[in-house]
């Protein structure tokens, strides 16, 4: 199925100059980046984006981190883009993220994990609406 998903290069990924590396992986897979921008996420948009994690013990740190510096937001489109981008990103847990994935190759940390990717069609639609008109 042709899908759209949201991929965010988080503040740690931007600081570590991984923007090109991540775009390269998305394009190598032959997915299409149909929208892209760099900006600092506002508190309101961060809270909307991570609403499902509101009650989690790591929520406050998560909001502080995602608003701590510029991010790159992109809408990626392709056949089964949601699941494919999740596979390119790798698992959230640094011990489970396999080498060859973005997190497996570039992150040791469960919070500062370089990228965010939508995990379902419903969330992808919601997340894209939050960041792109
Ligand atoms: P993301 O894919 O953006 O979705 C939720 C984020 O919460 C996740 O990536 C991590 O950055 C963060 N996260 C998930 N679990 C934990 C945890 N146990 N401790 C700290 N941060 C977490």
From TrEMBL:
Residue span(s) of domain Nucleoside diphosphate kinase-like: 2-133
CDD domains (UniProt xref): NDPk_I (cd04413)
Protein name: Nucleoside diphosphate kinase
Assembly notes: Homotetramer.
Species per Swiss-Prot/TrEMBL record: Cetobacterium ceti
InterPro entries the record matches: NDK-like_dom, NDK-like_dom_sf, Nucleoside_diP_kinase
Any GO BP annotation: CTP biosynthetic process
Catalytic machinery residues: 116 (pros-phosphohistidine intermediate)
Keyword ATP-binding: yes
Gene responsible for this protein: ndk
The EC number(s) this enzyme carries: 2.7.4.6
GO cellular component: cytoplasm
Principal EC category: transferase
Catalytic activity: a ribonucleoside 5'-diphosphate + ATP = a ribonucleoside 5'-triphosphate + ADP; a 2'-deoxyribonucleoside 5'-diphosphate + ATP = a 2'-deoxyribonucleoside 5'-triphosphate + ADP
Compartmental location: Cytoplasm
Keywords assigned: ATP-binding, Cytoplasm, Kinase, Magnesium, Metal-binding, Nucleotide metabolism, Nucleotide-binding, Phosphoprotein, Transferase
Upper lineage: Bacteria, Fusobacteriati, Fusobacteriota, Fusobacteriia, Fusobacteriales
UniProt-annotated binding residues for ATP: 10, 58, 86, 92, 103, 113
